[in-house]
Give the backbone structure.
Amino acid sequence: MMTKIESIETERLILEALTLDDADFVKDLFNDPDSLRYIGDKQIYDRASSERYLLDGPMASYENYGFGILKVSVKSTGVPIGCCGLLQREYLAGPDIGFSSLPQFRGQGYLYEAGSAVLEHAKAKSYESIYGIVSPDNIASIKLLKKLGLDYQGPLPSDVEERTTDVYCIKF
């Protein structure tokens, strides 16, 4: 049985659950050089590997936790521009906000708008805190986390992630 994931609308955007129909978009998004550098290689090389990622990642998260990464699209055109949503990581005390966009849609405030909506939705669902994890050299994401109201907590222990990762958090 599929868990129903609520869509979130903002002034310019719609955030909705990813489906297998989004496989080509997801392949493009996660093979962007910045995504590979800061998020890592998700081994999404073709439609089949993208569908496998969707099934094992976001769609499994929807079923297991009732939340996950959402597709972010421009409301007026329906064009997907990125992803934003919540992830559950076993080493964090609460959900983690994640976001990424295609290069041509950066710098227009879309991820701030999407991230703000995701945090408001989480607050309405009575989450006490939301985390953000980020590479210390990912300046754009650090600025966005801070703008969204998350505060620096410190680095993750080195045995948790393969690379140095900083933790941010907002408490509601």
